[in-house]
Task: inverse folding
DNA sequence: GGATTTAGCCCAATCGTTTAGGCACGCCCT
DNA sequence: AGGGCGTGCCTAAACGATTGGGCTAAATCC
């Protein structure tokens, strides 16, 4: 029903030309139009329920006000939602729209999809990855505004946003230090990715800041899931002089550490304090006691990427910022003072 | 660089009119064109790296080949990813694109967003909800192709796809019955939603099919999170004649049941078998032992919705199917035979 | 009073396609 | 020789907006 009301219909009803309608409706500055005419046009538009045709406008303006979020497998991870949501909200705040494409990790498919989006005159791209890592940006994105999300490329031509892993590692460790712990284990993961290195660095820095020596027996690497956490937990808690607290690479590993503690009859947080990373609510909220952890700024990264991208497109700015966003602590119940000797 | 190659450039290079280029490139049937010309056009297009301008085409054809997925808060839930992914893959299989909009639950915002999408000439909508429920479809969607996902409306004008909760409930229960259990508890949730009713129905049906009487002391309702599961678990396991198995409304509750079992020193699956629902991998894979559960067909629902919607748009079909998709079992390690008396 | 300015609007081109409806040429037939 | 019919291509009108450059009348200036 709302169908087929074009600017021509509005012009006709208001008794003016389409030019005038366009000028009025877009509030084009510097155009001299009688205020009577203005209201007549507005009324006509309202009465007819006129909605400008975005496709026609895009064609004429050579700008679609559409952004595309392309990702490897992001939509399959639990983090994805927040990134997408942050991006979508930001886009909508600017009056832009967001398209979504997932390559499933296949570079060829990815290229095809990006081409399809470019044909649709998408104005800019957000290239996002499932977890923080280095990427080679696809060639097809070379000459179109693009920002990287949770990803980093050597190429300084792209703005990028990633979590500040080092700061996150420090935050997590600091929580334990401030609770009074002096022997703090790190259940690390085995992959060589920025998150691993960054969080470990943060752990070391914070130990140092607290006047503690780094002891590599307290750093145990395993796979970054609950099974790995279990394994790392068993190893750490099996030490002759066991740690009173464990910082876990992520919440899944923390879940495993809980299990290892339970096997040994250790109670959290009374006998052992635990801090996770990621703030996966499903886990962190579900564990007993709730897991104190550090949240990744997914929502903020999504929003930052969109804001920056739109700015790059509209203001045609030339600097390409590369930021790290802080990871805030989320306190629940898994940290307490170390047990009395 | 790839900028600005229009059909006109191709026409010029091939020494023909744009009409001919269009005919050739689109393989318009019934057009008589010399095969020499055909190859010349194709070569010119290749050489110039011609990409048709989708916006112009949309304007002319009055069809954008773009679908929109609008949801209340879907993108924030862990399930979201799979729905979105299923939808996106299906769309891309058809050569369509997917836009994403999240209303955050605000009906006004939702209306605005939908209008914005309609202005952009989106061809159809998928209206999705965070969890299976009844909805009132927004007025603005009345006169545009729309299918409902994980949602159901009274209005028979909309096709819809939801999980078959009853079958899922039966499947979960059957796993326990077939393992030999005769006293099976149900840790139910407190909300009156289709999932609750359906899974409970399935539970009852399957008990009956197995020749067991329904005992309402074995059905305990609590909030649908780990805390609720803990509570329900404690109540069920505190019964004088305790169940040997518990079917949980969802995996989060199952997580709580694990905790309740641990408190009582009961070992899973040796002393107690547990089945969940949802197949939240973060939980189901992380628990020890792994949780046997029933998966929601999110990916399939996403794909089904897109396929159906495109069919509705292209073939202009008039029937509006309303399907329930089955929920497959995912076996892990939380079910065993009941303990010997 | 004639020239100039100004207010208020409109014409028509443009963005890049698709497509209905020609038009010219050569061939065959009578 | 003239008519009819394919073949192979092109012209031009959409689609629905935006916008540079008019144009007309009334108001103002000298």
Result:
């Amino acid at each position: 029903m709302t169908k087929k009301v074009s600017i021509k219909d509005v012009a006709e009803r208001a008794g003016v030309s389409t030019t005038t309608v366009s000028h009025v409706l877009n509030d084009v500055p510097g155009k001299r139009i009688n205020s009577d005419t203005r209201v007549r046009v507005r009324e006509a538009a309202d009465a007819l329920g006129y909605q400008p045709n975005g496709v026609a406008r895009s064609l004429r303006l050579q700008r679609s006000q559409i952004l595309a979020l392309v990702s490897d497998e992001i939509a399959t991870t639990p983090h994805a939602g927040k990134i997408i949501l942050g991006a979508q909200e930001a886009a909508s705040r600017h009056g832009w729209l967001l398209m979504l494409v997932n390559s499933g990790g296949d570079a060829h498919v990815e290229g095809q999809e990006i081409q399809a989006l470019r044909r649709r005159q998408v104005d800019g791209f957000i290239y996002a990855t499932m977890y923080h890592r280095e990427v080679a940006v696809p060639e097809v994105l070379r000459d179109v505004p693009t920002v990287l999300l949770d990803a980093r490329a050597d190429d300084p031509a792209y703005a990028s946003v990633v979590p500040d892993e080092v700061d996150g590692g420090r935050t997590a460790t600091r929580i334990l230090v401030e609770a009074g712990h002096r022997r703090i284990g790190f259940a690390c993961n085995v992959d060589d990715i920025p998150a691993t290195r960054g969080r470990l660095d943060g752990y070391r820095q914070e130990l140092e800041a607290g006047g503690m020596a780094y002891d590599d027996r307290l750093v145990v690497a395993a796979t970054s899931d609950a099974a790995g956490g279990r394994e790392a937990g068993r190893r750490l808690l099996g030490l002759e002089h066991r740690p009173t607290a464990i910082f876990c690479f992520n919440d899944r590993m923390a879940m495993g550490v809980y299990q290892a503690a339970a096997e040994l009859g250790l109670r959290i947080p009374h006998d052992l304090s635990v801090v996770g990373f990621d703030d996966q609510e499903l886990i962190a909220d579900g564990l007993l006691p709730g897991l104190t952890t550090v949240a990744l700024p997914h929502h903020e990264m999504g929003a930052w990427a969109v804001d920056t991208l739109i700015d790059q497109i509209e203001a045609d700015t030339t600097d390409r910022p590369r930021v790290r966003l802080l990871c805030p602590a989320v306190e629940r119940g898994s940290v307490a003072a170390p047990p009395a000797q």
